[in-house]
Structures are given as C-alpha cells and as structure tokens.
Sequence to fold (303 residues):
Amino acid sequence: MDKAALAAFGPAIEVVYDPTLVDDPERLHREVSDADALIVRNRTRVDPPLLNAAPKLRVVGRLGVGLENIDLDACAHKGVAVEPATGANTQSVVEYVIGAMLVLRRGVFASSKAVLAGAWPRSALGAGGEIHGLTLALLGFGAIAQAVARTAGALGMKIAAFDPYLPESDPAWSNVHACDLDEVLSIADVLSLHVPLTQTTKGLIGADALSKMRPGALLINTARGGVVDEAALAAALKNGQLAGAALDVFGKEPLDRPSAAVFDACPNLILTPHIAGVTEPANERVSQVTVENVLRVLTDERS
Fold:
C-alpha cells in the first residue's frame, strides 16, 4: 500500500507495516494476536485460523474490492467488519479496458522491432480496425462496468450489458441496451467481463459461450480468472473465432508453466499480472480509502 496513507492513523494507533508478513503465516498469526485491525491485499487468506489468532480483531481493510481471499461468513460470525476500497481503483480499470481494446483492435503497436530492422510493414498494419461504432458488451454492470461504458460511449461505441442483479429501473440502464446472456455474447464486438467469481460464474466463458460470439470479436477480462475457461479461449484465438484477448486475471496466479503453456502461439493476446486496477494514483486512493474505512470502524466502536 501507499505507506504515506498510514500517517492518518495518528500517534494514538500503533501501526505495524510489514508487507512480508503474507509470506510468513506463523509470524503473521503472532502479529495479529493483539490487533484491532488488519489491512490486506489479495494474497493474505483471512480464514478461521487467522481469525482465531486475532481475538481482538474488529475490522479487515481490503486494499481493493475482491473478497475471495476473505472468509466473509467467518468474519461475520466473529463480528469482524470487512471494508473493501470500493471505487478507489475504478479509473485505472477503465483505462486498462479502453487501452486494451484500442491496442487489440488496431494491431500496430508491436511493430517497433520490425521498423528498427528496416522493414516497413505499412500495408499489413494499415488493415487494423477502429472501435468507433462497435458494440461493447459488458458482462456484469456494476460501478466499474458503468464507468467503462461512459468512456466507451464517449468514443462512439454502442453499449450493451447483461446483469440480472441490477434492477430494470436503475438509471444506469439509460442509453444502454439491456439483454440476456446469449444476446450479450452474440452482439459483442468487444466483450468485457465485470463479474465476481462465484459458483454461477465459474467457467461461464467456456467453449459454448465463445462459440456464440461474433467471429473477430475481442475479449477482455479484468474480473476474475476462473470466469474464463483458458484452454477454450486459447483455442478460440488459435482457430480465429476470436480476433484477440486481454487477460489480467487467471485461474492460477501466478501462472506456472503448465497453466501458461495453453497460451503458447496464441495470436493477438495481451497477458498482464493482475494489475488492471493498480497504478500509482490508484494505489494512493485505495490506501487512503482503506485507512479511512478502518478508522471509521475503530472510531465508531470506541465512541
């Protein structure tokens, strides 16, 4: 986290800042034994053993929004509040999604080596596309997806979305085509995923779903890796069903060689290490919001 944000705790609260604790569970358990609050990213497992080691714990601040690493039921049973930094990294994810679709659609930004070597692949690279007028389909239409939609709409894209949990009366649907899952897949020129990993969404984008997409469509996943069947996606890229994909999240993180091998020889593929929401400004915002959230809980309990 941004260490400067910790100053907001003030002198009355003792702070132990040690990012290496995640790799030393035994020492972590010792450190939390007297803790009122714990701040984590996505690698620390906040599970019953950790909670049992922290009898005074009142709040877990999450540097981000994903909660898969936090046992919410166990926290609720222990009376421990869980506070994600909702909204703090939205802009970073928006810019990642927009940037990825521009790079994938245009297909020209890996030409430096050829140009420096004296090649001049102007005719081939001049066949790239634009995103203006295309349909951006959003699987999940929460706050981040809505922010992506606003930016994409300003660039002239048509917006469609599927989200069975967002009421039809919600004003977010204004100027957005609401559709079911099959339709959102079939009309997508670019499909961007914005759903949590649940029993319902696990493997949702597999061979069957990909076969319903338009030939030449793009897929961008900044949500959770388990939502996409990576082998099916790789096959769709290799056989030309999809024209490109950007993946920031994976079923196994970090990738090991067996899980990475499925992507060998995939064309027009961008892989990044779960950093869509991680920029320097976003990290500052996430850290500040997390500290504020933790302070609010601690202050409320003391008053």
Summary: The longest strand covers residues 242-247. The first helix runs from residue 25 to 31. Residues 90-271 form a domain with the Rossmann fold fold (CATH 3.40.50.720).
